[in-house]
Amino acid sequence: MSAAAYLDLPRVKQARGEIILPGSKSISNRVLLLSAIALGSTRIDGLLQSDDTTVMLNALQQLGVQVTRHSAESVTVQGVSRFSVTQANLFMGNAGTAIRPLTAVLALMGGHYVLSGVPRMHERPIGDLVDGLRDLGAHVAYVGQDGYPPLEIQPPGALSDRVRVQGSVSSQFLTAVLMAAPLAVARSGRALTIEVVGDLISKPYIDITLNLMARFGVKVERQGWERFIVPAQAAYCSPGQIFVEGDASSASYFLAMGALGGGPIRVRGVGQDSIQGDVAFANTVQAMGASVQREATSIEVSGCQVSAGQRLKAFDADFNLIPDAAMTAAMLALFADGPCTLRNIGSWRVKETDRIAAMQTELQKLGARVQSGPDWLRVEPIEAGQWRDASIDTYDDHRMAMCFSLAAFGPAAIRIMDPGCVSKTFPTYFDVFSGLLN
């Protein structure tokens, strides 16, 4: 992790090479928590080393879970039926993939817990999850502002066999209830039906959750995207060993580099066999004119030479299924042959920062004309001679820093402020980025 206040990027004309992705954040934190509440011990290989996974590991160890580290990317977690520590104050940083499922699990553990985070975490809504947990019979209270962390959890009362969860703001709320559901049925002895209120966003992330739950022995009956049934006999059992595939959201930056800098760039760690929805970003760069080759665990992209004046094809697309990788598409819009519109990205507003507002502000610094609405962004490409040198503010948001590195393919001088914020998911990102430049 860099402690520098800023990083000046070199002007990029060509990019080519091969990288091995760090482990997926979404998978890493899910697997850590599932391993902690599953019968038996689980060896996890390919684990992401980042701020967010450190938050989860620290919380689990604080709760009495035994974790043995074998290497930087390999640990063994000894599962427990109940956390031995029944009273704790847990600091969750700004890790949404940690605080949300852990809140649901702790709400069914029978202890007294307080969960808090950095100031931005206390601005990220969690009310839909709390409402769902209360509907289930859990006792969760707000320490500060209603609808937001910090949270105080007390032992649950009698549990219902039916719960309603809002799905239109973040899929992580449904993921949290799904992951905790086997604890609920163990207490009640009855199957649990989870009903989704509203239109469920980011469905591929729910697929990740269901896939991993099945790996730990719990198969959920999915009735469309409106209803999920967890059987009464559901109980987590360790698979013994599990490998975390590469982070598909992080892959998007390198696939984009291949599209902008000629390539080829081969990304190893995700491919046709990936369980992550963000691998679909390869379809986006292909639709914009890049050449894409997919294999089971790798993707290779070759594209145009934007430094020579070539342009990508413009798009008007719905990015509801790949909201994180969609930020990378907004950067590619700068190099398109016409205006590009990103639709159905309302979840950006409740991420590490309000990403719609942040993207609009920083893209405009570069000279782009940008319009936005509650759940959409429209970016006009920057014409030759209209680029402006810019210092890009990153809002303590790792994805802002990483996606704006792609601005270095333009003719302007680019400075990334607080480059160390990438430690949230990809501490070595800028070293890897530089290693692909020619």
Observed structural traits:
12 helices; single chain; 4-stranded mixed beta sheet; alpha/beta; 438 residues; UDP-n-acetylglucosamine1-carboxyvinyl-transferase, Chain; 23 strands
Structural class by SSE content = alpha/beta
CATH class bucket of the largest domain = Alpha Beta
How many individual domains?
Answer: 2
The major beta sheet can be summarized as: 4 strands, mixed
Q: Beta-sheet strand percentage?
A: 15-25%
| Alpha carbon gap, first and last residue | 24 Å
CATH homologous superfamily identity of the largest domain: Enolpyruvate transferase domain
The largest beta-sheet arranges its strands as 2-15-17-16
Summed over residues and divided by their number, the pLDDT gives a mean of: 96
- Tell me the radius of gyration: 22 Å
CATH topology name of the largest domain: UDP-n-acetylglucosamine1-carboxyvinyl-transferase, Chain
Helical content (DSSP H or I, runs of 4+) = 25-40%
Unreliable parts: none
